Protein backbone atom coordinates (compact mmCIF):
# COMPACT_ATOMS: atom_id res chain seq x y z
CA UNK A 1 0.00 0.00 0.00
CA UNK A 2 1.38 3.44 -0.95
CA UNK A 3 1.96 5.97 1.77
CA UNK A 4 -0.47 8.86 1.94
CA UNK A 5 0.65 12.48 2.17
CA UNK A 6 -0.17 14.95 4.93
CA UNK A 7 0.51 18.65 4.43
CA UNK A 8 0.65 20.95 7.46
CA UNK A 9 0.28 24.63 6.62
CA UNK A 10 2.10 27.56 8.20
CA UNK A 11 1.13 30.87 9.72
CA UNK A 12 -1.58 32.87 7.87
CA UNK A 13 -2.05 29.87 5.53
CA UNK A 14 -4.71 27.26 4.89
CA UNK A 15 -5.51 24.45 2.44
CA UNK A 16 -6.10 26.87 -0.45
CA UNK A 17 -2.43 27.87 -0.55
CA UNK A 18 -1.34 24.26 -1.04
CA UNK A 19 -3.32 23.35 -4.14
CA UNK A 20 -0.22 23.51 -6.34
CA UNK A 21 1.81 21.26 -4.05
CA UNK A 22 -1.05 18.76 -3.95
CA UNK A 23 -1.11 18.74 -7.75
CA UNK A 24 2.67 18.23 -7.91
CA UNK A 25 2.38 15.16 -5.66
CA UNK A 26 -0.54 13.66 -7.56
CA UNK A 27 1.29 14.22 -10.85
CA UNK A 28 4.22 12.00 -9.82
CA UNK A 29 2.13 9.68 -7.62
CA UNK A 30 -1.23 9.24 -9.40
CA UNK A 31 -4.04 8.04 -7.17
CA UNK A 32 -2.23 8.94 -3.96
CA UNK A 33 -4.27 10.47 -1.17
CA UNK A 34 -3.12 13.98 -0.20
CA UNK A 35 -4.58 15.67 2.88
CA UNK A 36 -3.98 19.28 3.87
CA UNK A 37 -4.98 19.53 7.53
CA UNK A 38 -7.72 22.15 7.67
CA UNK A 39 -7.22 23.56 11.15
CA UNK A 40 -6.24 26.98 12.52
CA UNK A 41 -6.26 28.57 9.08
CA UNK A 42 -5.31 32.16 8.32
CA UNK A 43 -5.62 34.45 11.37
CA UNK A 44 -6.50 31.51 13.59
CA UNK A 45 -2.92 30.33 13.06
CA UNK A 46 -1.93 32.96 15.64
CA UNK A 47 -3.49 30.84 18.40
CA UNK A 48 -0.84 29.53 20.83
CA UNK A 49 0.83 26.37 19.56
CA UNK A 50 0.08 24.50 22.77
CA UNK A 51 -3.60 25.03 21.93
CA UNK A 52 -3.18 24.02 18.28
CA UNK A 53 -1.11 20.89 18.83
CA UNK A 54 -3.83 18.70 20.47
CA UNK A 55 -6.21 19.36 17.57
CA UNK A 56 -3.52 18.73 14.97
CA UNK A 57 -2.60 15.55 16.84
CA UNK A 58 -6.20 14.31 16.75
CA UNK A 59 -6.40 14.89 13.01
CA UNK A 60 -2.98 13.29 12.49
CA UNK A 61 -3.93 10.24 14.56
CA UNK A 62 -7.14 9.67 12.61
CA UNK A 63 -5.14 9.58 9.36
CA UNK A 64 -2.44 7.34 10.84
CA UNK A 65 -5.05 4.72 11.81
CA UNK A 66 -5.63 4.10 8.10
CA UNK A 67 -1.96 4.29 7.10
CA UNK A 68 -0.24 1.08 8.25
CA UNK A 69 2.78 1.79 6.04
CA UNK A 70 3.29 5.27 7.46
CA UNK A 71 2.86 8.71 5.93
CA UNK A 72 4.85 11.45 4.25
CA UNK A 73 4.64 14.72 6.21
CA UNK A 74 5.25 18.01 4.40
CA UNK A 75 5.31 20.81 6.95
CA UNK A 76 5.62 24.46 5.98
CA UNK A 77 6.90 27.28 8.19
CA UNK A 78 5.04 27.29 11.54
CA UNK A 79 3.64 23.86 10.70
CA UNK A 80 7.11 22.35 11.17
CA UNK A 81 7.61 23.08 14.90
CA UNK A 82 3.99 22.19 15.59
CA UNK A 83 4.31 18.81 13.89
CA UNK A 84 7.77 18.28 15.39
CA UNK A 85 6.18 18.46 18.83
CA UNK A 86 3.43 16.05 17.79
CA UNK A 87 5.97 13.54 16.47
CA UNK A 88 8.27 13.92 19.45
CA UNK A 89 5.45 13.41 21.94
CA UNK A 90 3.66 10.82 19.82
CA UNK A 91 3.33 7.12 21.56
CA UNK A 92 12.59 29.68 14.57
CA UNK A 93 13.09 33.53 14.65
CA UNK A 94 10.90 35.05 11.92
CA UNK A 95 10.56 38.33 10.10
CA UNK A 96 6.78 38.06 10.49
CA UNK A 97 7.46 39.75 13.82
CA UNK A 98 8.90 42.67 11.90
CA UNK A 99 5.58 42.90 10.07
CA UNK A 100 3.72 42.92 13.39
CA UNK A 101 6.21 45.09 15.30
CA UNK A 102 8.26 47.90 13.79
CA UNK A 103 11.91 47.02 13.19
CA UNK A 104 13.01 49.51 15.84
CA UNK A 105 11.14 47.41 18.41
CA UNK A 106 13.04 44.22 17.59
CA UNK A 107 15.35 44.58 20.57
CA UNK A 108 12.30 44.91 22.83
CA UNK A 109 10.23 42.04 21.41
CA UNK A 110 11.32 39.85 24.32
CA UNK A 111 9.31 42.10 26.66
CA UNK A 112 6.22 41.36 24.56
CA UNK A 113 6.83 37.65 23.95
CA UNK A 114 8.46 36.35 27.10
CA UNK A 115 5.47 36.56 29.42
CA UNK A 116 2.16 34.74 29.93
CA UNK A 117 0.25 37.03 27.57
CA UNK A 118 2.86 36.90 24.81
CA UNK A 119 2.96 33.12 24.96
CA UNK A 120 -0.68 33.09 23.89
CA UNK A 121 0.39 34.16 20.37
CA UNK A 122 1.92 31.48 18.16
CA UNK A 123 4.68 33.69 16.74
CA UNK A 124 6.01 34.32 20.25
CA UNK A 125 6.12 30.59 20.91
CA UNK A 126 9.13 30.28 18.60
CA UNK A 127 10.70 33.70 19.11
CA UNK A 128 14.32 32.99 20.12
CA UNK A 129 16.20 36.14 21.12
CA UNK A 130 19.96 35.41 21.17
CA UNK A 131 20.50 38.49 23.35
CA UNK A 132 17.99 37.36 26.01
CA UNK A 133 19.03 33.75 26.50
CA UNK A 134 18.04 33.41 30.15
CA UNK A 135 14.67 35.05 29.63
CA UNK A 136 14.04 32.83 26.59
CA UNK A 137 14.80 29.66 28.55
CA UNK A 138 12.81 30.78 31.56
CA UNK A 139 9.71 32.19 29.89
CA UNK A 140 9.28 30.62 26.44
CA UNK A 141 7.10 27.60 27.13
CA UNK A 142 7.35 26.01 23.67
CA UNK A 143 10.62 26.21 21.73
CA UNK A 144 13.13 25.39 24.52
CA UNK A 145 11.18 22.21 25.20
CA UNK A 146 11.07 21.31 21.52
CA UNK A 147 14.82 21.91 21.11
CA UNK A 148 15.70 19.79 24.13
CA UNK A 149 16.89 22.85 26.05
CA UNK A 150 14.59 21.69 28.81
CA UNK A 151 14.53 18.02 29.82
CA UNK A 152 11.90 15.72 28.33
CA UNK A 153 11.53 12.07 27.37
CA UNK A 154 10.66 12.42 23.67
CA UNK A 155 13.98 11.49 22.09
CA UNK A 156 13.04 7.94 21.13
CA UNK A 157 9.84 9.15 19.53
CA UNK A 158 11.73 11.70 17.41
CA UNK A 159 14.09 8.96 16.23
CA UNK A 160 11.17 7.07 14.68
CA UNK A 161 11.36 9.55 11.80
CA UNK A 162 12.71 7.62 8.82
CA UNK A 163 13.99 10.61 6.84
CA UNK A 164 14.03 14.29 7.79
CA UNK A 165 14.44 16.69 4.86
CA UNK A 166 15.07 20.35 5.76
CA UNK A 167 14.49 22.88 2.99
CA UNK A 168 15.50 26.55 3.02
CA UNK A 169 17.44 29.24 1.23
CA UNK A 170 19.05 32.68 1.50
CA UNK A 171 16.25 34.54 -0.31
CA UNK A 172 13.42 33.32 1.94
CA UNK A 173 12.90 36.81 3.34
CA UNK A 174 10.98 35.72 6.45
CA UNK A 175 12.91 32.97 8.25
CA UNK A 176 15.70 34.78 10.09
CA UNK A 177 18.41 33.69 9.86
CA UNK A 178 17.46 31.53 6.90
CA UNK A 179 19.81 28.83 8.26
CA UNK A 180 17.31 28.22 11.06
CA UNK A 181 15.42 26.23 8.43
CA UNK A 182 18.32 23.80 8.93
CA UNK A 183 18.48 24.18 12.74
CA UNK A 184 21.17 26.88 12.58
CA UNK A 185 20.82 30.06 14.62
CA UNK A 186 22.55 33.20 15.89
CA UNK A 187 25.01 33.42 18.74
CA UNK A 188 24.87 36.42 21.08
CA UNK A 189 26.75 38.51 18.49
CA UNK A 190 24.27 37.54 15.75
CA UNK A 191 26.81 35.38 13.94
CA UNK A 192 25.15 32.34 12.43
CA UNK A 193 26.09 29.07 14.11
CA UNK A 194 25.39 26.05 11.91
CA UNK A 195 23.36 23.10 13.12
CA UNK A 196 26.34 20.81 13.80
CA UNK A 197 27.76 23.36 16.26
CA UNK A 198 24.54 24.01 18.16
CA UNK A 199 24.52 22.80 21.75
CA UNK A 200 21.34 20.75 21.29
CA UNK A 201 23.00 18.96 18.35
CA UNK A 202 26.30 18.33 20.13
CA UNK A 203 24.43 16.99 23.18
CA UNK A 204 22.02 15.09 20.95
CA UNK A 205 19.30 16.55 23.15
CA UNK A 206 16.35 15.30 21.11
CA UNK A 207 18.03 12.93 18.65
CA UNK A 208 19.02 15.24 15.79
CA UNK A 209 22.69 14.18 15.87
CA UNK A 210 21.75 10.50 15.88
CA UNK A 211 19.39 11.04 12.95
CA UNK A 212 22.21 12.78 11.09
CA UNK A 213 24.80 10.10 11.88
CA UNK A 214 22.60 7.31 10.63
CA UNK A 215 22.19 9.16 7.32
CA UNK A 216 18.56 10.16 7.73
CA UNK A 217 18.97 13.94 7.91
CA UNK A 218 19.02 15.77 4.58
CA UNK A 219 19.35 19.52 3.93
CA UNK A 220 18.36 21.17 0.68
CA UNK A 221 19.41 24.76 -0.07
CA UNK A 222 17.59 26.59 -2.85
CA UNK A 223 18.18 30.24 -3.70
CA UNK A 224 15.76 32.62 -5.38
CA UNK A 225 12.69 31.40 -3.50
CA UNK A 226 10.57 33.66 -1.29
CA UNK A 227 9.00 32.33 1.89
CA UNK A 228 5.44 32.16 0.61
CA UNK A 229 6.36 30.36 -2.63
CA UNK A 230 8.26 27.29 -1.41
CA UNK A 231 5.21 25.07 -1.60
CA UNK A 232 4.17 26.24 -5.08
CA UNK A 233 7.59 26.08 -6.75
CA UNK A 234 7.83 22.98 -8.95
CA UNK A 235 11.63 23.21 -9.18
CA UNK A 236 11.87 23.04 -5.38
CA UNK A 237 9.51 20.08 -5.41
CA UNK A 238 11.61 18.28 -8.02
CA UNK A 239 15.01 19.05 -6.45
CA UNK A 240 14.19 18.81 -2.75
CA UNK A 241 11.15 16.63 -2.26
CA UNK A 242 10.23 14.27 -5.06
CA UNK A 243 12.93 11.64 -4.66
CA UNK A 244 12.11 11.16 -0.98
CA UNK A 245 8.36 10.71 -1.56
CA UNK A 246 8.43 7.01 -2.40
From TrEMBL:
GO terms for cellular component: lysosome. GO terms for molecular function: thiolester hydrolase activity. InterPro entries: AB_hydrolase_fold. SUPFAM superfamilies: alpha/beta-Hydrolases (SSF53474). Keywords: Hydrolase. It is an enzyme of class 3 (hydrolase). It catalyses: S-hexadecanoyl-N-acetylcysteamine + H2O = N-acetylcysteamine + hexadecanoate + H(+). Its EC number is 3.1.2.2. PANTHER family: PALMITOYL-PROTEIN THIOESTERASE/DOLICHYLDIPHOSPHATASE 1 (PTHR11247), ZGC:66024 (PTHR11247:SF71). Belongs to the palmitoyl-protein thioesterase family. This is palmitoyl-CoA hydrolase. It comes from Pundamilia nyererei.
